[in-house]
Fold this sequence. Notes:
Blueprint: H1 15-21, H2 24-41, H3 48-73, H4 80-90, H5 94-101, H6 115-141, H7 147-157
Amino acid sequence: xxxxxxxxxxxxxxxxxxxxxxxxxxxxxxxxxxxxxxxxxxxxxxxxxxxxxxxxxxxxxxxxxxxxxxxxxxxxxxxxxxxxxxxxxxxxxxxxxxxxxxxxxxxxxxxxxxxxxxxxxxxxxxxxxxxxxxxxxxxxxxxxxxxxxxxxxxxxxxxxxxx
Length: 163
């Protein structure tokens, strides 16, 4: 009986191998590249700990690419409350405070989970929200907290939960 080996063009590393080969932001980007496609296609197949990494990276990516308006306009805003929990789990203080403060322009500081409702509110909030978010974005871009270090420490504390 013949057994055929499946050929792959690129060997996919697991999280432990990535951390052995890369450090810092390079490692986190590689881990995000491994986990994010799974998150967007079949999120239930990720461990809770893997999901934490993807959520924090989703937050960082959206703010760096277009600020809070983009974050709340896009589907990333659907995960607002989960990202808050993820930031707490990795031990963030500054990035957590920034995200929590970003809800102030919403009525009652409650961010709607439904994207279409958030988008409607964004149109109504206008310049007031932009003023608040501009200050928060400036604080975010200073990177006064080492989010990469927090993510790597979190992964190392929970190694058994990563692929």
